[in-house]
Amino acid sequence: FSFVGNCEIDLEIKRYFCRAGVKSIQIHGTMRVILEPLIGDMPLIGALSLFFLRKPLLEINWTGLTNLLDVPGLNGLSDTIILDIISNYLVLPNRITVPLVSELQIAQLRFPIPKGVLRIHFIEAQDLEGKDTYLKGIVKGKSDPYGIIRVGNQIFQSKVIKENLNPKWNEVYEALVYEHPGQELEIELFDEDPDKDDFLGSLMIDLIEVEKERLLDEWFTLDEVSKGKLHLKLEWLTLMPTAENLDKVLTSIKADKDQANDGLSSALLILYLDSARNLPVSYILMDTLLS
């Protein structure tokens, strides 16, 4: 999905004597459209679901933004915040589902059961670039590396290892996988700085490979940088409809339990909150409005 459009959006806030606008908007991403369920009558398709497999790229050409950011309540406005709003609606597991026929049960379409669980052992890195400099850049120092891990709209951030080009994190994260093929594991490493964090490399792994192998324990070469490797252990966990193997699973995760912040998962509870009826009227709110 790629949209590049010119526009004329003008905003004026007289109270603060400021004006701003937007001259153009660009958005690029991989969008998946699902047509299901198939039915025997017209329109042949019961519903339409659409979502981005990962966070899209957004670029907004602002005008007069400096003045606009001086307005209280708008000083946090940025492309990143707008992109986060889009992600909360349209990046997996979030989706938009439009029923095309009446009396269609779309709860399973809006909130599908995950295809599996990805357990990510974020172990260590080697030979990272030293981004911290001294004596106005003459002396190269070390870095304070940390990682950001993404699967769809699920984001995890590791702890920061101070002044180390061969950091050891030994952290574990678990992410739900809703679509495959298509979804990928995205990892970016950064050097923490007081102003702007420096980029230390990235990695993108197709989850189809992880599902096929069930267990990957490898060193991966970082992309977009001259050097650096990342050690990951990736496990693909399949959801079972019954609890027959629960005791076996509980036994198998005891050895790794101390590595995760909250312990490793042994089961998944899915709760659908469908609707509510006959809720009490908020008379306090009504009194406030009337007064």
From TrEMBL:
It is found in: Cell membrane; Endoplasmic reticulum membrane. Residues 100-220 form the C2 domain. One of its GO terms (cellular component) is endoplasmic reticulum membrane. This is ESYT2 protein. Pfam families: C2, SMP_LBD. SMART domains: C2. Keywords: Calcium, Cell membrane, Endoplasmic reticulum, Lipid transport, Lipid-binding, Membrane, Metal-binding, Repeat, Transmembrane, Transmembrane helix, Transport. GO terms for biological process: endoplasmic reticulum-plasma membrane tethering; lipid transport. It comes from Corythaeola cristata (Great blue turaco). Belongs to the extended synaptotagmin family. GO terms for molecular function: calcium ion binding; calcium-dependent phospholipid binding; phosphatidylcholine binding; phosphatidylethanolamine binding; phosphatidylinositol binding.
